[in-house]
Amino acid sequence: MAKPRNAISPTREEDYPEWYQQVVKAADLAENTPVRGCMVIKPWGYGIWENIRDVLDGMFKATGHKNAYFPLFIPKSFLQREAEHIDGFAKECAVVTHSRLEADENGVLQPAGELEEPLIVRPTSETIIGELFARWVQSYRDLPLLINQWANVVRWEMRPRLFLRTAEFLWQEGHTVHATAEEAIEETQLMLRTYATFAEEWLAIPVLQGEKTEAERFPGAESTLCIEAMMQDRKALQAGTSHFLGQNFSKACGIKFQGIEGKEEFGWTTSWGVSTRLIGGMIMTHSDDDGLIVPPKVAPTQIVLLPVTPKEDTRELVLEACKSLEEKLKSLDFAGSSIRVERDDRDLRGGEKYWQWVKKGIPLTVEIGPRDLENNTVFVGRRDGGSKRESMNLDQFVEQVPQILEDIQNTLFQRALDFREKHSRIINDKNEFYEFFTPTPNQKAEIHGGFAYVHWDRDPKWEEQIKNDLKVTIRCIPENSDEVGTCIFSGNPSPGRVVMAKSY
Which end of the chain has the lower number of beta carbons within 10 A, N or C? Predict the structure, then answer.
């Protein structure tokens, strides 16, 4: 049997990392720039991010949070206030030391105007926001303070990969202050649930919710909660985090308030965030060897109309039919907003135009030609069905479009969930664990393993050992992980299973 032809080369099976890069390129999502590690997000990729941002922004506001904006630059002394925090980010910091450029005797621009104190280009904003929160919070009446910002951050990545790890990326970071530890912990849990709901209901990515180990915790946090997703190479992707910071940053930044009984108290703080990494997760969860697949709810365009005009004498009739259909579809609602439709009447061959949209991951392609006008039909392609297309009655198609989009959304989620379940395993033996994460000669090194649910006695030496031996980390301690057992590494009692996997 002849090998099927695919739009993306290499395929996932042949070379997964390169496949990912080619999907990004073919979909015209982003590209590298002259600045190492930085990317330009192109209109189709940025359109996905805008939809992610807008939906999440609505979810944040529905839970009482308000947006603000804070400085890009942070005085170095601010980061030094919280020792564990600065240790966690020191190797990734970009530092500004001069305020201007001046030409030397050879006309070459050189840094001049050395700053009295170096400025850090924000890797995260806890310290600078904490400084300002200390001004805003004076009384228990000022609490809770619930703030979010949409911003860019810089973390100097040594091995960048578009959307997954770049020196500069876009994100949101929530920061809150509360009167009690209980309220702050509740906030941490609420925002994690918000992220999980968004990932599953909008990106169609099934996620595990749980807590990070001490070794994987956000620097300076008392606890870090996370959502973890499985990619098609069976690696884990941390898709969002929510941190209970205790009073660590409040004490470092002086966030104090007068309590209801008149006593001065330190606030209890949280922070939480997701980034453009979500787009990378979406790519690796759903896409196939023909290109990107975008869940309908976040697709910049959900339906593209492709006029088929082989003869000039029928061209205007076809174009008018497409315009009429476009207006009908735009009047329909899906996922709380009007259906997003684009009419592509570029002067390109039909096959070329169609495959461009397939590779961009458009949920629905609709082709209309002279024969369709005669028969009152359209030729419909669902991206979740690969490149298969079928003829449908026009009126039935219009009536069923919202349900078709919903069905695509649900199919993508179920497909990803089935994949995760297929490659998750309960393991009770150390040898089996090592075999699970070690590729056989017949396996692709990039595609093996999955999620392992194992007992661990909470001794960090085993966590370090498996990381060194297999490049496997504990992704999270899942919610309700209270099944006592025996640690597969030490033989000691274990309070519950953890999820272990290779990761991005």
Answer: N
